[in-house]
Amino acid sequence: MAHLSAVVLAADEGPSPLLPHVSELIVGLVAFTLLFLFLRAKVFPIFEQTFTDRTESIEGELARAASERAEAQKLLSQYQQQLAEAREEAGRIRTEAQAQRAQIVEEARVEAREEATRITTAATAQIASERQQALAELRREVGALAVDLASRIVGESLEDDARQRGTVDRFLADLEGTQPAGIQ
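Above: the chain sequence. Below: its structure as tokens.
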């Protein structure tokens, strides 16, 4: 309160440096009003437009970033799907390759068995043919020996082919009839 009384006493004594004149207050109020109206009419709309543009730009960037993020997620899911399909395809191909390998191995086994059977059959046939040849040659030699032996024993010549063959055939038939059971 002492402070207020000092201000009142000073006002009675003359112009106070703390309290302006009424005319200064009116001029200041008019100037402030004009400045406020000017700023409100000209400057604030520019600030508002700038803020609005900046807000729209930021929101646009956020929307674009969100759409790009969604697109990236979509691409990622497509990539993962393609990767899963590729893995599935690789598994299927691997399974098919194993099946083909098993089939090829089985075909090779069958082919080898058939070839072995063919070789065995051919060898058996060749052995049988060689056996027949050996038997025929053995018959000729045994026949020749038998004719020679018989001609020495009988004392007559068995030069006649028909007689010689008949004698050899009889000798061999007798020989085959008296053969032991394990020899052929």
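The helical segments are 2-13, 22-154, 161-177.
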